[in-house]
Amino acid sequence: MSLEEYERDMTRCSRCSYCKFVPHVKWKNWDTAAVCPSISRYHFHSWAAGGKMITGLALLRGRIDYSDTLLDIVYQCCMDGACDVSCKNQRDLEPLEMMLALRAKLVEDGQLHPAHMVAIDGLKKEDNMLQQKKSDRGRWAEGLDVKDLTKEKADVLYHAGCRLSFDEELWDISRGAIAVMKKAGVDVGIMGKDEVCCGGRAYEMGYQGELTKYAEHNLDVWKNAGVKTVVTSCAEGYQAFKVLYDKIGKKPPVKILHITEFIEQLIEEGTLKLENEVPMTVTYHDPCHLGRLAEPWIHWEGVEKKVMGQMIVHDPPKTYRRGANGVYDAPRNILQSIPGVKLVEMDRIREYAWCCGAGGGVIDAYPDFAQWTANERLKEAEGTGAEAIVSACSWCERNFLDTVKENGNSIQVLDIIQLVQKALV
Ligand code: SF4
Ligand code: SF4
């Protein structure tokens, strides 16, 4: 939708500032009451979702011009949607959708962030978000006994994603996912060097056409490969395939599962047995793209009506995505199935989880802000007494690992698959 279509939301923003916080009734501690990295770091209302509502409206009505500050306000934002959940649960507005439309307008008007341009140029040339050669995309799987779906058939397609295809320090995660599936007897294959990006990160940066392009490509590839299920370890890819493709009218005709959902299913069926003792206290970080942003898309068509000259109602009634229906239980159920693992929770979890800082192109454009945000989360994790922060998203893990290296935090950073592998006999 265009920015014009959010004019009503922008005018209805009441400047209440709920979007800066976890709802008051859920507060556990003043230090963990905040939910928006952008306002918490930059301390000026324009950086909050409500401030971006005002900025978007002023831009739309021609009251302000583009400036470097305006670009910082828009791009110094993780697009993690915590503000959106807080606002919707109290005011029923959709600031995240407005911010996506605002970024798309900036891109359309040529107001680009240089780091995003580098990422998008790389994407257009090499089909990945890491500016790597597409011919190297399958290297992560060298030596693995896994089917090549460009030549043979399999029931399940494993999509590694850009980060797990090229970030060698994280290859244990994609290789581990294949090993776990093979151990459970899953008929799995990969596209290797022919795998391409999901288009989701480009969409969040404001380059919405890239999502359509990659959605059409991926849907064709899956159809030709004859797969029924696509499994991915990339939370961003999962959200793009399951939610964004549906949002733009390209709902995949195959089952989309995150690796945590698939493993939970294998454990329940009894095909995967986690029997080794892993004596460890861990805390779990909900990735935004697996949690609140992964809630299924709800299509709505209707009109807004004013009742008694004041109240806005939707006809037919509109159902909002309020963040509670993301993937929260599968990773926790897996952790609790591992003998010896003790799960301790942070204050901000599930739909109110604090972002890792890597989303929305922030890790590309403002690495210091990305690491500041990650460090806030690592401090929260350390406060639980856990030895490790476990997650299920390679972008979160990359940002946490870089931050630990920079700041010397004491906590380990692990992907859930690494614990699952330790528990396998
Ligand atoms: S965006 Fe929503 S929560 Fe934030 S100030 Fe506006 S109405 Fe309040
Ligand atoms: S998306 Fe995240 S960083 Fe951006 S305004 Fe919302 S809560 Fe703040």
Q: Which small-molecule ligands are present, each listed once?
A: iron/sulfur cluster
Radius of gyration: 21 Å
Shape: globular
Largest β sheet strand count, sense and barrel closure: 5 strands, parallel
Distance between the termini: 50 Å
| Share of helix, binned | 40-55%
Q: Which spans have pLDDT < 50 for at least 5 consecutive residues? A: none
The fold-level CATH name of the domain at 135-269 is Rossmann fold
Number of strands: 11
Q: Which helices and strands occur, and which strands form pairs?
A:
Blueprint: H1 7-12, H2 37-42, H3 49-60, H4 68-75, H5 82-88, H6 95-108, H7 114-126, E1 147-148, E2 156-159, H8 162-166, H9 171-183, E3 188-190, H10 200-205, H11 208-225, E4 229-232, H12 235-247, E5 255-258, H13 259-269, E6 280-284, E7 303-307, E8 311-315, H14 329-337, E9 341-343, H15 362-365, H16 367-382, E10 388-391, H17 394-407, E11 412-415, H18 416-423
Parallel strand pairs: 1-3, 2-3, 2-4, 4-5, 6-9, 6-10, 10-11
Antiparallel strand pairs: 7-8
Bound molecules: iron/sulfur cluster (2 copies).
One iron/sulfur cluster binds next to helix 2 and helix 5.
